[in-house]
Amino acid sequence: MNMNYGSMGPGAMVRCRQCSSSITAMPGARAVQCMQCSCVTRVSGRGRQQHGYGQGYGGNGGGMLMPPMRPTPAFGGGRGKKRAVLIGIKYTNRRSCELRGPINDVKCMRYLLTERFGFPNDCVLILTDEERNPCRQPTKDNIRMAMHWLVQGCSYGDSLVFQFSGLGAQVPDDDGDELDGMDEALCPVDSFQQGPILDDEINEAIVRPLVHGVKLHAIVDACHSATVLDLPYQCTVSKQTGRWRWRDERPMTGACKGTSGGQAVLISGSSNGKSNMSVLPEPYATIGAMTHSFIRAVECEPRTTYARLLTSMRAIMRDSSGNCNLQGPIGGSIRKVANFSGVEEPQLSSAYKFDVEREPFCM
């Protein structure tokens, strides 16, 4: 799919911050990914064109670099109260970063949502690089439009799910809204041509538009994805008490990273950024470690709290056997767990603090 957002002029040349290769940045791009070393480099303000896109999402004026959305393509599907976007990317034919596991992540998540949580099949939008329909390929443009489809017209009582399994990246922050000085990003299938999708844009797209009574769960299995929704609060385990506690992640700049009254929860994993892509023989069907631990924890205890869910995920991740034991027709055919994202611990972030020991988990 080739979307033209107007005459934006020629791209800028950028030097990779790791290997110094020359990269052509698409007009308006905020970051580019190097084909030589996969490192993500930010495009300086001088090298990208600033566009006056007006109000953007959620009625927030100014500051948004995401192009205005065209009408959603022929995704098909319904607009029920429960909707999901599931994205799995193998990066086929990219030998330096080809993954095994993300497609099965999506298939197993779809089974969980439809069989356990009552999501209608036609309200679950799937984007993978095995899809033949060009509109279902996980390109940067299609992912942007899928995020828009997910939250568009959301209203009280909606339960939304966003899943991404694939590659993540980090890039130095340039607007002071990251406590660690790094922005996180998700890499679409055309990331080397179009650049990654930064956490600032993801926050604008699927967090800010959430109105009162709407709840979004994001499950992200990718390296460098711990705070990829830019949510204000992060739940971690206290080393002194062993209990879960909230940490304030709001930026010192005062930038608003919350919702428009709804709730957003990110379940991700802290990782060392090292993937484990090719350690299994080709015949094995695999699933991502973070996704596997999430689905397995829910299957073992469907009625649980957020704290018990995270604790169960930790225990499953620490099981060194690497064997998959999921229910359903897809789960039964998967034999091994592949930690392609290098995840070490499950992590929870939220738009609002809540009692994780008592709050029931439900999607």
TrEMBL record:
A GO molecular-function descriptor: cysteine-type endopeptidase activity
Task: List the InterPro entries hit by this protein, alphabetically.
Answer: Metacaspase, Pept_C14_caspase
| Name of this protein | Peptidase C14 caspase domain-containing protein
Q: Which GO terms describe its cellular component?
A: cytoplasm
Q: Which organism is it from?
A: Triticum urartu (Red wild einkorn)
Q: Which family does it belong to?
A: Belongs to the peptidase C14B family.
What gene name does this entry carry?
Answer: LOC125545796
Q: Name one GO biological process term.
A: proteolysis
Peptidase C14 caspase domain segment(s): 81-321
